[in-house]
Write a structure and sequence with these properties.
This protein is of the alpha/beta class. The longest helix has 26 residues. Bound molecules: glutamic acid. The site of glutamic acid (GLU) has 12 residues, from helix 12.
């Protein structure tokens, strides 16, 4: 039995390793396979100078970790954030491996990041940073090797610079090197909202199981980026009352419900969600503890911890973010009977449509948005029920069940591939 005390819940890599150990011990894997697939396959660290618009030059650190490539090319986003370090990228890369295996994509897992504060960068600085970082990691990425995508603080424009930089490096246009691109250069319809749509589909399945009437539910959403905003929009379209949303600086609450599009308009004007008319300002900590049907953490890691888990009053949590709930918090939420749809399942819609984008690129085909969304729904619903069945059979929570499904698939790939030489 893994000893929780020897892991630090504030460290994403410790979270990842404990989540892995809790599931792996139940699978009775060959010890060498467990050891091999728990840790990253390759880790790439780059140091490069960034020239700011005012002429200053600073040395930045960037990372690309390929956690696993047993089931296909490494796959995962790139984030720009001040707290990015090698250990965080390792954890995020591992989560990608399990996520891709849960939804049964022919991909391994990877993640990249640059330690920086993008809120202080101009658009031209952001472009120079992106191009230089991609040039630095270009020897290890590629359409059959390792395929980046958006993550925290990166978006379709950043993906477009990645296509351009990589294509210049190769000498021909290569759009399948990255997903989450603008439509004009081979992006897929439905990709922008895919993560949030996947969250919606898993919530619909959970509501069915728990006999929750969907349209009269309420939702509280932490984070107002691509995932948080579109989750709010999609749930609002379903008639759900969005009673609170937040961004980095804090949140807003309105018992009668918020209109996500109007809040977005306010954010575009003022730079933050707070002080939105007809709402009460609240802190991010208060937001997480509001009574609601659905709580959607869609920001960053480590938000629901042993400190606040006991005060959560949601019926269902769907993790739009990666790693929002720590393992000690999981135990507390289990005790409270809260139904947690883990990140590796709940937010797998993003990488699923990334896979669809890559398939369209490789085949030089274009699918309709309806086609993309229907296929996404099929994938999410199937994965949800596979995970749920394991949780019943093994009497474990959905997170451990999801890891068991994923680890079993990746371990089997190692078993049949064998060892070189
Ligand atoms: N960054 C997203 C995630 O964490 C998407 C990754 C992808 O599409 O490759 O799942």
């Amino acid at each position: 039995m893994p000893n929780e005390q020897s892991y630090d819940e504030n460290k994403p890599l410790d979270m990842h390793n404990l989540q892995f150990d809790l599931a792996a011990e139940r699978l009775h894997l060959e010890p060498w396979i467990a050891e091999k697939i728990k840790h990253p396959r390759r880790e790439f660290l780059v140091r490069f100078p960034l020239r700011y618009d005012d002429g200053r030059i600073e040395l930045l650190h960037g990372y690309r970790v390929q956690h696993n490539t047993l089931r296909g090319p490494a796959k995962g986003g790139i984030r720009y954030h001040p707290r990015v370090d090698l250990d965080e990228v390792r954890a995020l890369a591992g989560w990608m491996t399990w996520k891709c295996a849960i939804v049964d994509l022919p991909f391994g897992g990877a993640k990249g990041g640059v330690t920086c504060d993008p809120s202080r960068l101009s658009q031209t600085e952001l472009e120079r940073l992106t191009r230089r970082f991609i040039w630095e990691i270009s020897p290890i990425i590629g359409p059959d090797q390792d395929i980046p995508a958006p993550d925290v603080n990166t978006n379709p424009q950043v993906m477009a610079w990645i296509v351009d930089t990589y294509s210049v490096f190769k000498g021909y246009t290569c759009n399948s090197v990255v997903t989450g691109k603008p439509l004009s250069i081979g992006g897929s319809l439905g990709r922008l909202k895919a993560t949030s749509r996947g969250v919606l589909y898993t919530l619909q399945e959970a509501a069915r199981l728990l006999h929750i009437h969907f349209a009269s539910s309420t939702a509280v959403i932490q984070g107002f980026g691509n995932v948080g905003y579109h989750a709010a929009e999609l749930l609002h379209e379903q008639g759900i009352r969005i009673t609170a949303v937040s961004d980095l600086q804090g949140g807003i609450y309105n018992e009668r419900g918020l209109d996500p599009a109007a809040v977005l308009h306010h954010v575009q004007k003022t730079g933050r969600v707070q002080d939105y008319p007809e709402s009460e300002n609240i802190s991010n900590a208060e937001l997480l503890e509001l009574p609601c049907t659905f709580l959607i953490p869609a920001a960053i890691e480590g938000q629901i911890t042993r400190k606040n888990a006991g005060r959560i009053r949601a019926k269902v949590i769907a993790e739009g973010a990666n790693g929002p709930t720590t393992p000690p918090a999981d135990r507390i939420l289990d005790g409270l009977g809260i139904f947690v749809i883990p990140d590796v399942l709940a937010n797998a819609g993003g990488v699923t449509v990334s896979y669809f984008e890559w398939v369209q690129n490789v085949q030089k085909l274009f699918w309709t948005e309806t086609d993309v969304n229907q296929r996404l729904q099929q994938v999410m619903v199937r994965a949800f029920h596979e995970v749920y069945a394991i949780s019943l059979q093994e009497k474990v929570n959905l997170r451990t069940a999801a890891y068991m499904l994923a680890i079993d698939r990746v371990a089997e790939a190692k078993r049949v591939r064998g060892i070189f030489p």
